[in-house]
Amino acid sequence: MDALRMKYPMLFAVGLSLMLFLGGCAFEENGGGAISGGFVQRLVAEAADDSIAVDSAGTTVVEQQPADTGADYLAKLQSLANGDTTGRWPVIDQPLPLPGAILPHKRIVAFYGNLYSTRMGILGELPPDEMLAKLDGEVANWNAADPATEAIPALHYIAVTAQENAGRDGKYRARMPFSQIDSVLRIAEKRNALVFLDIQVGFSNLQAEIPRLDTFLRMPHVHLGIDPEFSMKDDLPPGKRIGHFTADDINFASTHLAGLVQAHNLPPKVLVVHRFTQGMVRDYKQIKLHPEVQLVIDMDGWGAPALKKNTYHTYVFREPIQFTGFKFFYKNDLIPPPHRMMTLEEVLALTPRPIYIQYQ
Fold this sequence. Notes:
It is globular, with a radius of gyration of 21 Å. It is built from eleven helices and 13 strands. It starts with 9 loop residues before the first helix and ends with a strand. Helix 11 (344-348) links the parallel strand 12 (323-328) and strand 13. By secondary structure, the protein is α/β, with parallel strands linked by helices. Helix 1 packs across helix 2. The strands form three sheets. Strands 3-4-6-7-9-11-12-13 form an eight-stranded parallel barrel, surrounded by four helices. A two-stranded antiparallel sheet has the order 1-2. The protein has a two-stranded parallel ribbon with strand order 8-10. It folds into two domains: 10-81, no CATH class; 98-359, TIM Barrel.
């Protein structure tokens, strides 16, 4: 199955510079820091339109506005854009997240896998204490490589796994017992780490799989991952071809998470969507953003550095949604020449810079 994975304005800059010089600008709040859609766009416009005044002598003066979280958020988004000149990044038509948001001020560094398998990722390959020690090292490496963005640990657990066989209900997926998710939560607690629950739906769908995990998703530190590769739409079984999610699928996931955040007064959830082909995410322009959810498109294909860079540029950079992620494979990345993983410096040189990092 792994062999399939890699086959497949200047005005804004001026407005941003002016806004950052001013140290903030006025914008309309919508309770608890939530801004109705397009807050970044309006933030830039207000910096251009409202922050210049002329005194009685005819001299242009800059009005010093109090600093605000909107200005901080926009500045960090611009930093992640890493000098992009195409106008794609940062995504300026997005809402300001609710208080307590992780991104973009912290970089998530996650170990991926399943406790039942030593082959699905580093999370299940090593004994828990050894795995956590290795995760500590990767977090430290990221903090050294990019001191401006604090790296924090996470465990990304596959809670619903795609299967080659249909199973009794014909859905080609296996739901992990809640006791195993409890085990992951206990392991994560040793490092105060975030937990992501990942879903591979097979012939099922997100509407059937996400709500049954609400017991865990109601916890402030538990987030969600969804994998289009194994969303087969009742066609060929997993592994026979690469699946996909539509914008409607992704919108269901984000809307469901937003409802949990609102109902239980939670900090924003992070939603990770895996991607390494064009067809895995469809109708991306129809994906809706919410103040309660931070959406990451994670480039999770394996291969040589040149191929991974090209995949990131082709399928993540060119179709901007909100935030980006990048996946390292401890074993598979070493298979093709030059038989090495990308360096952290190479990943930080990508446009935009990934803010979610995953190791398998």
